[in-house]
Amino acid sequence: xxxxxxxxxxxxxxxxxxxxxxxxxxxxxxxxxxxxxxxxxxxxxxxxxxxxxxxxxxxxxxxxxxxxxxxxxxxxxxxxxxxxxxxxxxxxxxxxxxxxxxxxxxxxxxxxxxxxxxxxxxxxxxxxxxxxxxxxxxxxxxxxxxxxxxxxxxxxxxxxxxxxxxxxxxxxxxxxxxxxxxxxxxxxxxxxxxxxxxxxxxxxxxxxxxxxxxxxxx
Amino acid sequence: xxxxxxxxxxxxxxxxxxxxxxxxxxxxxxxxxxxxxxxxxxxxxxxxxxxxxxxxxxxxxxxxxxxxxxxxxxxxxxxxxxxxxxxxxxxxxxxxxxxxxxxxxxxxxxxxxxxxxxxxxxxxxxxxxxxxxxxxxxxxxxxxxxxxxxxxxxxxxxxxxxxxxxxxxxxxxxxxxxxxxxxxxxxxxxxxxxxxxxxxxxxxxxxxxxxxxxxxxxxxxxxxxxxxxxxxxxxxxxxxxx
Lengths: 218, 242
Fold this sequence. Notes:
The complex is a heterodimer of chains A (about 220) and B (about 240).
Chain A: H1 2-14, H2 18-37, H3 41-62, H4 66-73, H5 76-82, H6 87-116, H7 123-148, H8 156-183, H9 188-217
Chain B: H1 9-40, H2 55-82, H3 85-117, H4 125-146, H5 150-178, H6 198-241
């Protein structure tokens, strides 16, 4: 499992483009928003947590089809399927690698982008916490979507149609934590719900992803 | 004699052929009677006027939109466990019907909401979760369309249906937490103290029965179509091979 994780990380960093793209996309979406809604600080301050969450989610979505597509093309997914490592483990490692290369950088970059959107002082900590708790769920759910569409040519649009509805609960609770944090309200309830969704998804969805992968490789 | 006999496509088509005329009859009779009764022979509500009568379309459609997804869930489970093709095809056949019911519920709700709430749309929990349900239907149907191999498509969509059900339920409670509602609470439950008045209740029951019959008839018909389409494809393939 560790070897696979190391391999995926190396591939993501070295094999051109994939690594920084999600971050760049995050930056661009966040920068576009003020052009759309106007530069008034009061408006931006109110919507900053939601904007950051939505654009982090979109940046996450953008890199999903890379999780299995390349491995499927060059046949290494078939090798992984016949390896002693169970398919559930493969799905879990793939999700972990996706989180380390996409989710974690997004979490790190989010406060910097918060400055651009006049995020209130109190909001930075909770924004970090909510993204750090929520992005693993995004990665795991996304891995499930990527596994569903692995056999389909040009499945990118379909992938977003499948995955985005599944992202709704995570987005609601994550953005709620960030918003309440920014406004100085108590965050405990949405925080617990977000953690629950994340942990539940991490624990259960690799099984679904593995089942789907097995069907697709049949 | 067990229920699994109907998993045989030939038997399924023969039985449903016999049932379909009755189902259509019940659907047309109930919907005709219920709607005419509801629209012309019930009093106007003293506050809402005649707009209240949209309830005869709105409530049954909303009910069937949810039940269609439940039916797909059960059919998907049967497909995963027992691998009866009719079951997978029935789930596929129910999806567009359910999606249309969702649209009917949302549209009639908007038409009623405009004069009553003063807005076509509000981000109310019930409205929002219905919109999300509609997105789930779209994804489900798109996945069926996208995959060429029938068995793979059936497998993948049924797993999507299972996972989607969990997330749809999660979303339901998430939006409940996210925003306070404008929509009224449940007013048709059997055990509630305060329900819709009987004058409106009886024609509504008839309409619900009509919608159920309509849904079952449509699903039977569409499943038959799917079975026949698949058989045609198999025959064509065999001819080309020969």
